[in-house]
Design brief:
Elements: H1 3-16, H2 20-42, H3 45-62, H4 70-93, H5 118-126, H6 129-141, H7 145-152, H8 156-179
Helix pairs in contact: 1-2, 1-4, 2-3, 2-4, 2-6, 3-4, 4-7, 5-8, 6-8, 7-8
């Protein structure tokens, strides 16, 4: 068990009781990693921060019914952010309701965040949503296979197999960029 999970275990009862100090402690412990995960999914810091904030609002509403320990709380937060990111991605893919003929065309690749290397951001944007999610959870946030499986409601073997494919695709995209600058 990681130190974070031990801390989350201590705070989960406070979360269920809607304790301000428990919410603050969980936010301070988890927000940076959740924002990093969301940036990897969305490529946009502001949207990522908004998504994380929304996840914590949802946690306040869901708190009394929260089950499990600190690991379950962590998985719940990552799932909430994941669903928020997927909703944002779907919103971006819809046609705008207002005319936008005066706006420049975009290639469908989100603008890279200043925290990411531009080539890496472009390569991440070319992965599927699932591939990008797994790569970010593993390599940006630093979750292990069990934690990723819990956050994505999958099993560890499937996570490792999909992560391997995602890493190979990302490497191929980055290698292609290096050979064609």
């Amino acid at each position: 068990m990681t130190a974070r999970n031990r801390d989350l275990d201590e705070w989960v009862d406070g979360i269920r009781a809607r304790s301000d100090s428990a919410f603050r402690a969980v936010y301070l412990s988890m927000a940076n990693d959740l924002v990093s995960f969301a940036i990897g999914m969305l490529g946009d810091r502001r949207a990522a921060e908004d998504t994380v904030q929304q996840a914590f609002v949802e946690l306040v509403n869901a708190a009394p019914g929260l089950r499990g320990d600190g690991r379950s709380l962590q998985a719940w937060l990552y799932r909430s952010v994941r669903y928020g990111c997927l909703d944002e991605i779907r919103r971006r893919q819809r046609k705008p309701e207002t005319p936008s003929a005066h706006l420049p065309e975009r290639a469908g690749v989100p603008e890279p965040d200043h925290d990411l290397d531009p080539d890496l951001a472009v390569a991440l944007a070319q992965l599927t949503d699932r591939q990008r999610e797994l790569v970010v959870l593993r390599h940006v946030v630093g979750l292990d296979g069990h934690e990723i499986a819990a956050a994505t409601r999958s099993n560890r073997a499937a996570v490792y197999a999909a992560l391997g494919r995602a890493e190979r695709r990302l490497r191929a995209l980055l290698d292609a960029k290096e050979s064609n600058p």
